[in-house]
Design goal:
This protein has helices at 26-38, 48-60, 71-82, 98-106, 151-161, 247-257, 260-278, 313-322, 341-344, 373-381, 393-409, and strands at 64-68, 89-92, 110-113, 136-142, 164-168, 176-177, 180-181, 188-192, 205-209, 213-214, 217-218, 284-286, 293-294, 299-304, 328-329, 382-386. With 412 residues, the chain is α/β, with parallel strands linked by helices. The protein has two domains: 26-258, 3-Layer(aba) Sandwich (Aspartate Aminotransferase, domain 2); 260-333 and 375-409, Aspartate Aminotransferase, domain 1. Helix 2 (48-60) runs parallel beside helix 6 and helix 3 (71-82) packs parallel to helix 4 (98-106). The model has no long low-confidence stretch (mean pLDDT 97). The structure holds pyridoxal-5'-phosphate.
Length: 412
C-alpha cells in the first residue's frame, strides 16, 4: 500500500505526459519499425504520411487532407491557402490556444476577437455579425474543451457575407455537431496531434478540406514552400513554409487513429461521470453542450460560482493543487488571448507593431481589457483539469470528492 500523503488525492493521477494517460504501445512500435527498416524518414519519399492522410480523411468523410507538423502549422497552412491580403481581418475566439492566432499574425492579417457564450465557452454566434467589415476574410472557429461550437448560425453568417470558415478542431477530435464530425462542416478543419490531444504523434497536425485548390493555390503546396514537386525542374509559386510531417510521426499516427474509439469512449464516459457528480453541487456549473452535439472532453472545465464562495478562483485552484489535483485557473490562462503581451504589447515583428500597425489595415488596432467581457470573466471563474485515457471511475470519484470538499470549505 502506498503511504498516505494526507491529501484528498493521495497519489498521482494518470497524465498525458506518459503512458499512464496515453494509449501508446506495441502497435506504434510495429509501425515505427517498418519506417526505420525502410530507411525512409521523409514524407516526400515515403508512404506513411500519405496513408495517414488517407485514413484520417476517410474516417471523417472529408474529400481532402494534408498532414503537417503541428496544429499551429495546420491553421497556418489553411490561411496560406486562403491567402488574405495584409490587413484583412479574421474573426476568432479569445478562448483558444495561441496557436490559433499565431498563423493570423504571421500572415499579416488582423485577429478580431468575438466574445464567447459562457455556457460552453465557444464563440457566440450573436457576437460575430457586428464585427464583420469589408476586410473580413474568414471566421476561425475553435471547438473548445472538446465541445462543438454552434456551427449552423456561424455557417449562415459566413454564407451571407461570403466568408470562409476554418474549424479549429485541435481539442475536439471526433466531436459531432448535428450528426457530422467537426472539421467537415466549414471550408477547412484543422487538427493537432500534440501530446495532450485525443490521439498523438508527439507533435503533428492535419488539415481536412472541401477543396484542394483555391484561387490558383494547391493546398499541398501551402505547407511545402509553394513547390510543385510533381513538375520537372524546381519552382516556388508563392510564399509558404515547410511544415512536413515525418514518416515517424505518421507511423505513430496510423497506430493511434485506430485507437480513437477507445480514446473517445474513455474520455467521454469519465467526463460525463464527473459532470454528473459535480452537477449535484450548487457551487459548480459544468459546461453545457448544445442539443444534438457531442463533446469529446479534451479537458474537463467547470465554472465555480464565485458569489457563493469566500475565496477567489486563484485561491481555489491553488488549494485544489495542494490537495493533489492538477488544475489551472482559466483557459487559456487567467486572461483571454488578446491580453497576452504578444498581442496587447505588439511583440511581433521587431518594433514595427505589425500587423496591428499595418498601413493596409482599415484602422489602428489596439487590444485591452473590456474587449470581450464574457471571456475575461470566464477566465476568472473557470477551473480546468487535464483529461486523458487513463481516467477510471475511481479517479472520477476522487476528483469529484476533492472538488466538492474544497469548495464546501469556502461556502459563504
Ligand atoms: C484549440 C487549439 N488550437 C490550436 C492549437 C495548436 O496546436 P499545436 O500545439 O499542435 O501547434 C492547440 C494546441 O494546444 C489548441 O488546443
Amino acid at each position: 500500500m502506498s503511504k498516505s500523503t494526507g491529501r484528498l488525492i493521495p497519489n498521482p493521477l494518470p497524465t498525458i505526459a506518459n503512458r499512464t494517460g496515453r494509449l501508446i504501445g506495441e502497435e506504434e512500435l510495429q509501425q515505427l519499425r517498418e519506417v526505420i527498416e525502410s530507411g525512409t524518414l521523409a514524407y516526400i519519399y515515403g508512404t506513411k504520411v500519405w496513408a495517414f492522410e488517407k485514413e484520417f480523411r476517410e474516417l471523417l468523410g472529408s474529400p481532402h487532407s494534408v498532414a503537417v507538423s503541428s496544429g499551429t502549422a495546420a491553421l497556418h497552412t489553411s490561411l496560406v491557402y486562403l491567402n488574405p491580403e495584409p490587413g484583412d481581418e479574421i474573426i476568432v475566439s479569445p478562448i483558444t490556444d495561441m496557436g490559433t492566432v499565431i498563423p493570423i499574425l504571421y500572415q499579416q492579417a488582423i485577429p478580431v476577437f468575438a466574445d464567447i457564450d459562457p455556457a460552453h465557452q465557444n464563440m457566440d454566434p450573436k457576437k460575430i455579425e457586428n464585427l464583420i467589415s469589408e476586410r473580413t476574410k474568414a471566421i476561425m472557429v475553435t471547438h473548445i474543451h472538446g465541445i462543438p461550437a454552434d456551427l449552423d448560425p456561424i455557417m449562415k453568417i459566413a454564407q451571407r457575407y461570403n466568408l470562409k470558415v476554418i474549424e479549429d478542431c485541435a481539442q475536439a477530435h471526433m466531436a459531432t455537431y448535428h450528426g457530422k464530425i467537426v472539421g467537415t462542416i466549414g471550408d477547412l478543419g484543422c487538427f493537432s496531434f500534440q501530446q495532450s490531444k485525443h490521439i498523438t504523434t508527439g507533435d503533428g497536425g492535419m488539415v481536412v478540406s472541401k477543396t484542394d485548390m483555391y484561387n490558383g493555390r494547391a493546398l499541398r503546396l501551402c505547407f511545402d514552400k509553394g513547390w510543385p514537386r510533381d513538375l520537372p525542374g524546381r519552382d516556388h509559386l508563392f510564399l509558404a513554409p515547410n511544415y512536413h510531417m515525418t514518416e515517424l510521426q505518421a507511423a505513430v499516427g496510423i497506430a493511434q487513429i485506430r485507437k480513437y474509439p477507445t480514446s473517445i469512449n474513455i474520455r467521454r464516459d469519465t467526463g460525463r461521470a464527473l459532470a454528473k457528480r459535480l452537477d449535484e453541487c450548487d457551487l459548480v456549473t459544468t459546461f453545457r453542450t448544445l442539443p444534438d452535439t457531442t463533446s469529446t472532453f479534451f479537458g474537463f472545465g467547470f465554472k465555480i460560482n464565485l458569489p457563493m464562495l469566500d475565496a477567489d478562483g486563484e485561491s481555489i485552484a491553488k488549494e485544489l493543487q495542494s490537495e493533489g489535483l492538477k488544475c489551472e485557473l482559466g483557459y487559456p490562462g487567467k486572461i483571454p488571448l488578446y491580453l497576452y503581451p504578444m498581442i496587447r504589447e505588439e511583440k511581433t515583428f521587431g518594433t514595427s507593431g505589425l500587423p496591428f500597425s499595418s498601413p493596409s489595415a482599415r484602422k489602428r488596432w489596439k487590444y485591452g481589457p473590456g474587449l470581450c467581457p464574457v471571456a475575461e470573466q470566464a477566465c476568472k471563474e473557470t477551473i480546468m483539469l487535464p483529461w486523458n485515457e487513463g481516467m477510471r471511475d475511481e479517479h472520477v470519484q476522487l476528483i469529484a470528492n476533492a472538488i466538492i470538499t474544497v469548495l464546501e470549505r469556502h461556502r459563504r
